[in-house]
Amino acid sequence: MPRIPRNRPHPGLPDRQAILDFIATQKSSVGKREIAKAFGLHAQDKIALKSLLKEMMEAGELEGGPGRTLHKGGGLPKVTVIRVVDVADTVAIAVPDRWDHPTPPPRLRVIEPRRRASFGLGDRLLARIEEQGGGYQAFPMKALAKSEEFVLGILRREALGWRLVPVDKKARGDLAINDPGEGQPGDLVLAEPSGRPPRQYGRVVEVLGDPFQPRAFSLIAIHAKGIPNRFDESVLAEAERVARQPLGDREDLRHLPFLTIDPADARDHDDAVWATPDADNPGHFRAIVAIADVSFYVRPGSALDRSARSRGNSVYFPDRVVPMLPEILSAHVCSLVENEDRAVLACHLHIDPEGKLLNWRFTRAVIRCVANIAYEEAQATMDNQAGEYLPVLQPLWAAWGVLAKARAHREPLELELPEKRVILDEQGRIAGIHVREHLTAHRVIEDYMIAANVASAKALEKKKAACIFRCHEAPSREKIVALRDYLETLGQNIALGQVVKPAVFNRILSRAKDGENYEQVTEQVLRTQTQAYYAPTNVGHFGLALGSYAHFTSPIRRYADLIVHRSLVAAHRLGEGGLHAEEEKGLSKTADHISMTERRAMEAERDTIDRYVAAFLSTRVGEVLETRITGVAKFGFFATVVGLGGDGLVPVSTLGDERFVFDEDARVLEGITSGTRYVSGQRLELRLVEANPITGALRYELPEGGSAPAQRRDRTRPKGFQPRPGKSRVPPGIRRGRR
Question: Are residues 284 and 413 in the same domain?
């Protein structure tokens, strides 16, 4: 057979364009076999086709896909794995999960099947790809399991090859790595697993660097939770442009001495307050809660808006903040810094002597704050009745006095939850970990914010306008029964026939206030509560004892507040930037999405604090520390260092030779012979034997091994008593809901 000249097809072969056209018209993936069959090729023609296809791949006209399939060069396979990266106007946008080209990956419009829950950010899908009008559409075939997502861990080199040690303390084992890429031993890396255990391998897709460097702990959480932390150039450019726009026609409130009162380490200031006695109505007060007018800068459907929705909220770590908005907006133009004109959405409140909101109105305004002060400074000024801002703070406190009356009357849930603050030095290393002090000044600002949130929700309900409500449902009967069973072990009771209100839990906490079980009771009451969420349908807020509640006061850091602002702007005809009809149609999906991003942020923040605590304690391994038991299970108990935190496990196997039985109702591990008891809330000394800063995991043991001094069995019980064996389980994690 004569040699076929290069670049000239065999007489029986289709030409290159015919092959490309054929591949483009097929709805499923094709390979050499399908091409040969379509063009009726046999014997020598197939050999020549193989050579031609190889030439086309070398020239970049074709690319290989899974299973020896072929697709157009620079394009996408007919079937491939995609990852959802954005949800714009209720439509999911995805990119190829793997993209090995220097150009940006194409964005695909995901066509969601009917009668299915919407896809969320980060979802990975096996999809059929169609090219239409110069773009791509993806038709999902299968949602991929979570086990197929990236794994974050530390890369190690061993005699038998590379291994990845996951940073997730819940991970069951290491992952073998067959492609370390540019990773070096000890690097923090992202790896993509493939295959199924026990024959599962991974390839390194991103090297993040030294896991022990300052700021690495938050970086671990950012990547582990899939939190977007880089803004596209288009988003940054749009932020720069809108930041320069004039403030427009607004109510001028610059003559009023507004203050922002925030934590000393606040990164932004999105709420300012002012109050004064009502001269026309003795005992009444006028107050204004002024909130950064983010809706004026971030318009529906813009690149800024899509980015903000995708993030859902800002995420705050000890060493950094991952903002919802670019810094030029979040820390500058929208932040209510002192002595600068700032655009706000102002909530004007009329408060009666009993703290009831008689009426309210909303305006777009311009203010100029006289100062940004910390809670501690505000508290010291009021305690000493002296200071530069005393004349501004006094009427604020006076108006708060009547708001406090209304709060006391409705009796919201009063839980004292310590908040840890990690102190870093200039190099980003841990200088200390402290519990934030809760001051009256915190309650003052909180009650003003609650009043504005209530006014926002009621204003939108009155206008029959769309709203994303902050919802908190009453505890389920099952949870209340579990709490009752627990309280009975302490000699307390709770009647199940009554309508459960927050005041019921307050009385439980009050009775335990001065006892040794107060922290334990507080944790159990917290675990009984449901988790707050966002929804376009109002179900009320159980914890705050309020019938209507929406988030209005933090649009710099919460997308829910931005939606509320837009709805208020549209309902009260306050100008541009109001809620669009298309946006309103998708509020249910938006509410689900931002509820998810809030939980994601809470988990990331909590895990980062755990890693900092573990790093702080890593220099004290071997020491005996004062701890408190936070949870008990069949396999052991969990304890935390008093005043510091850091949950760690004491395995039951380390408690000595005695057999221990777990009573689930009482949450007690009890020794059958000695009666030694380990119960939630109990304080005891434990030796720290392990502190892993990468996973945040701690492990303790008894100081001398075996049954250390602990609670002894009540000798009034019948001889031979054994606690009821229950279904053992790890106590559920404490959920710190956000109001």
Answer: yes
Is position 714 within any domain? no
Contacting residues for 426 by C-beta, under 8 A, at least 6 apart: none
Cβ-based burial of 727 (10 A; exposed 0-12, middle 13-18, buried ≥19):
exposed
Asked if residue 110 has pLDDT above 60, the reply is yes
User: Mean pLDDT across the chain, nearest whole number?
Assistant: 85
Residue 580 or residue 71, greater confidence: 580
> What contacts 529, CB < 8 A, 6 or more positions away?
413, 472, 475, 542, 543, 735, 737
**β-bridge pairing 285-292 and 271-277:** antiparallel
Residue 506, helix vs strand vs coil:
helix
pLDDT digits (tens, 9 = 90+) for 602-637: 999 989 988 888 988 998 999 999 999 988 888 999
Phi, psi of 158 (to 5 degrees): -120, 175
Q: What is the pLDDT of residue 67?
A: 56
Neighbours of 410 (CB within 10 A): 14
57 and 23 assigned to the same domain: yes
**Residues with Cβ < 8 Å from 384, sequence gap 6 or more?**
none
Contact 4, 48 (CB under 8 A): yes
What confidence score (pLDDT) does residue 256 get?
A: 98
The beta strand positions in 122-268, using DSSP E, are 124-132, 135-143, 151-158, 161-166, 175-179, 188-196, 199-209, 251-252, 259-262
What does DSSP say about strands 636-641 and 645-651: parallel, antiparallel, or unpaired? Answer: antiparallel
pLDDT over 50 at 675, yes or no? yes
Q: Using an 8 Å Cβ cutoff, are 639 and 626 in contact?
A: no
Question: Are residues 556 and 517 part of one domain?
Answer: no
Residue 721's pLDDT is what?
32
Find the domain containing 42 and state its range: 16-72
Euclidean distance between CA atoms 275 and 281, whole angstroms: 14
Per-residue pLDDT, averaged over 683-704, amounts to 91
Q: Domain check: are 61 and 195 in the same one?
A: no
Omega before 140 cis (within 30°)?
A: no
User: Which of 72, 102, 137 is a domain's end point?
Assistant: 72
Instruction: Identify the H or E element spanning 646.
Output: strand 645-651
What the block records as the tokens of 102 is: 């220097």
pLDDT at 349: 98
What is the greatest pairwise CA distance in the chain? 109
CA distances from 184 to 12, 156, 163, 524 (A): 52, 8, 11, 45
Q: Write the pLDDT tens digit of every residue in 117-164.
A: 567 666 778 888 887 777 888 888 887 754 446 788 899 999 889 999
Question: Dihedral of CA 609/610/611/613: which sign?
Answer: positive
If you search the block for the tokens 């997308």, which residue do you land on?
559
